[in-house]
Design a protein that fits this description.
- Helix content is about 35%, strand content about 25%.
- It is α+β, with helices and mostly antiparallel strands.
- The strands form 2 sheets. Strands 3, 4, 5, 6 and 7 form a 5-stranded antiparallel beta sheet that branches. Strands 1-2 form a two-stranded antiparallel sheet.
- A hairpin with a 2-residue loop joins β1 and β2.
- α1 crosses α6, α2 packs antiparallel against α6 and α3 runs antiparallel to α4.
- The longest helix has 22 residues.
- The N terminus is likely disordered.
Length: about 240
């Protein structure tokens, strides 16, 4: 039976140093079937599949607030970042504090959104406020600036890498919440609400707000998710 071996060759990062080398990924049979990955019992992939957008949120959590806060912290803490810079930050709001956030959003949008369209906007915001809490995701710009100063060759890349790290942190939290039976969605009312939010919760000026994630109990089932054809998205070469 034909056996194929795999390797990746290129530049790799070790601490603050880069080196060129090869990582051997091992070998497997070329007759590997399309459903083989299911035999791996990949818990991470199972969690990722559970992550769905939930707009019908409730205030009843299946776990204690302290445990949910720890879950969020751990998810962000173990998210990768360029040069291990750990630039992601978060403010976690529960109960009335979360309600306060969505009231800020509502009152910020009230003079901006046309009067005839505001009831729809208000209903959407009230849906987020119906949840048990909200995670505010930030990226620390002082960390980004420090990296730019210390590694000028990559100065233009660090803001991009920071955003990528922030996106991974958001996804990690979302998947972790889903795996814990907690619904969530991802919203972006920044930068309109930045100043008032920073003032209300004494957020450092070097923290840049990137997203808001309302979460709570799942009050409606998820519809079946539709996917485009894999052939349109992926190219695999053996």
């Amino acid at each position: 039976m034909l056996t194929v071996c795999f390797a990746i060759m290129g530049w790799f990062l070790s601490g603050k140093h880069r080196y060129f080398g090869q990582i051997n990924l091992g070998c497997r049979s070329a007759a590997h079937d399309a459903t083989g990955y299911r035999r791996m019992n990949n818990a991470l992939l199972d969690s990722i599949k559970k992550r769905r957008t939930q707009y019908a949120l409730g205030k009843t959590l299946p776990h204690a607030r302290e445990d949910v806060a720890e879950l969020i912290r751990e998810a962000i803490k173990h998210t990768p970042s360029s040069f291990n810079s750990q630039s992601s930050r978060a403010v976690i709001l529960f109960g009335q504090e979360s309600d306060k956030l969505w009231n800020i959003v509502k009152e910020t949008l009230r003079p901006i959104v046309p009067a005839e369209a505001f009831p729809q906007t208000e209903a959407k915001i009230d849906g987020f406020a119906a949840g048990a809490g909200t995670v505010l995701f930030y990226e620390d710009q002082s960390v980004v600036k420090g990296l730019q100063e210390n590694f000028p060759l990559y100065a233009d890349n660090f803001p991009v890498w920071s955003e990528q790290s922030g996106g991974m942190a958001q996804h990690a939290v979302w998947a972790a919440l889903a795996n814990a039976g907690i619904g969530a969605s991802l919203q972006h009312y920044n930068p309109l609400i930045d100043a008032e939010v920073a003032k209300t919760w004494d957020v450092p000026s070097n923290w840049k707000l990137r997203a808001q994630m309302p979460f709570g109990s799942n009050e409606q089932p998820f519809p079946e998710k539709q996917f485009m054809n894999d052939a349109e998205r992926f190219k695999v070469f053996f």
